[in-house]
Amino acid sequence: MNSKYDKTMSITGSQSRSKRKSAKRGRKRLLALVIAVAVGGSANLPLEGPLEAYAALLGGDRIMVHSNPLLIDGVSKAVPTANVHGDTYIGLRSLSDELGLDIGYDADNQTVLISGRGRTLKFEIKQENGAYLLNDQLIYALPIIIEDDSTYVPLRFFLESVGYGISYDAALGMVGITTIKENPITFKTEQIAEANEGISLKVSYPQIAGFANADIQQKVNAFLKKEIENHVSADKTMLNKAAADNKQWEADNAKIKIPPVSLDGVYKVTYNEQNRLSLYIDYYMYLGGAHGMTERVPYTFDLTTGNLLTLQEAAAGNANYVSIINNEIMKQYKEDGLSLLAPFKTIEPERPYFLKHNGVVIYFNQYEYTAYASGMPEFEIPFASFR
Questions:
Q1: Any idea what DSSP says for residue 259?
Q2: How many helices (H) and strands (E) does the chain have?
Q3: Rounded to whole angstroms, what are the CA distances from 103 to 35, 93, 97, 121, 216?
Q4: 377 pLDDT exceeds 90?
Q5: Beta-carbon neighbour count of residue 251 at 10 Å?
Q6: CA pair distance 370, 11, nearest whole angstrom
Q7: How far apart are CA 93 and CA 176, in angstroms?
Q8: Closest to 207 measured CA to CA, from 138, 137, 254, 273
Q9: pLDDT tens by residue, 3-25
Q10: Backbone torsion region of residue 85, taken as left when φ is above 0, otherwise alpha when ψ lies between -120 and 50, otherwise beta
Q11: Where are the beta strands (DSSP E) in 97-185?
Q12: pLDDT one-digit tens code per residue, 60-72
């Protein structure tokens, strides 16, 4: 274990993107820790399926398990760990005993359901594409691995999905898992979906519930609903034009068949603490060609007013927030060896951002500074940097 793990934890981003990007990003991860915990108990899960589907990435090797200390809410726990080609995985059953999560196995449908902290995470044992249902929203991450009747899921994806923070204590040389004290709200997934000849559209977005101030809850929900509807309406114009152009192209070229154009939107709640709520929606649009493009739209709300927070407000009002962020971005991308298509100089004063448990996150859009295969590099600037 070393500081490289800490740096990687700060830079690597959301795994709830398209399947293609998730797999690419996963193979590039430099994380040194894989936390592996046996499923055990009555949920004896089969070996076939996921392990075979992941064989190409694993290279046919077995997971090498070791026992290392892990801090869970400040208490050291000895857990089995392993390094799986640089990817970080965590097992289910034993960890649930420590975190208080409920894990159920439906033998008939061969699905696992994890519930707790106002969330449900569901996946099929025989998944081959890293598909999960988080609060009924379909999202993608690295696929599970099953070996010796133990089920493993991606560490960061799993913990952030169920409301836990991840940190690294350089002095102790230990990774920590922290139970986040969240605002007392829950999330319901709403969808806008359409399907017709040549066009597929499915966008998920959140609506909050259970908040003490009903007026602010309604204000946030109405704002999000209108934002998503406006975005989808604008994108449908492009979809319709592309579908018509593709149809004409196929008519003029009998040997060409173009897949349907599509728009897929998924959301991720990244911060729900201290009377603030931060989330983003990733819109993946495919209009034809080799691949589509993802547009990320973030929102950060002040739950005492229901208003959006500016980047400077999120940075504790620090007048030098732009230069502080610039310095951190340059430091992090150089340490990570990230190759840029153009020199980075500065962010815009109102640069899109979102919050995570430990800081403000700035990200590069696809092709903005990096190649498509790099996805959207993220740079987490600790809150302490602005104080």
A1: P
A2: 9, 21
A3: 17, 7, 10, 9, 34
A4: yes
A5: 9
A6: 14
A7: 18
A8: 137
A9: 332 332 222 333 333 333 333 33
A10: left
A11: 102-106, 111-116, 119-124, 131-134, 137-140, 145-147, 150-154, 164-169, 174-179
A12: 567 777 777 788 9
Quote the CA–CA distance of 277 and 347 in Å, as a whole number.
23
DSSP per position, 55-101: HHHHTTPPP-EEEEEEEETTEEEEEEEE-BTTB-EEESHHHHHHHT-
* C-alpha 213, offset from chain centre: 28
- Closest by Cα among 148, 278, 280, 133 to 205: 280
The full length of the chain comes to: 387
Spatial distance between the Cα atoms of 172 and 162, rounded to a whole number of angstroms: 25
Q: How far is CA 211 from CA 207, 217, 267, 271, 355, in A?
A: 11, 6, 20, 15, 20
Which two structure tokens, joined as six digits, stand for 197? Answer: 């000849």
Taking only the tens place, the pLDDT of each residue in 73-100 is 989 887 777 667 777 777 788 788 888 8
